[in-house]
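FW: tagging you since you asked about this chain on Friday. Here's the raw sequence from the shared folder, copied in full. Didn't touch anything.
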Amino acid sequence: MVVRLKNKSSKRRDSEGKLEKVETPKTEHPETTEKPEDKDVHANHVEAFNSSLRRYLAAFRRRTNTYAKSVVGLQRVLDIFWMVHNFVRSHFTTKKVPAVALGIIQKGLTWEDLLQIRLIC
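HL: got it, structure written out here
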């Protein structure tokens, strides 16, 4: 279990007027398996992924002029997110790029590698 420090309340201040920090338990993210059982996939995991998707993709938050103008544009944004999520960024708990952990590639891609990939259609 990981412990994080959190401000308890605005009423608890030390002699200097700063908020007192209190330790609160924070459970770790469960280990991910290749083929998780349905009972192991919780709504929290899905909502966390949806939240990160909205956080990284402005087109799905209506903060760009391209919001829902074309399916092709939104699909392009999703494809880039998918590549970065699976081939560039390392996972928070496993510290490995997901594609490397599954044995799809030997080492994670860099941004330079990602930008030099050409799609074959």
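FW: The beta strands are 2-7, 21-26.
HL: agreed, and The helical segments are 43-56, 71-88, 98-101, 111-116.
FW: great, closing this out.
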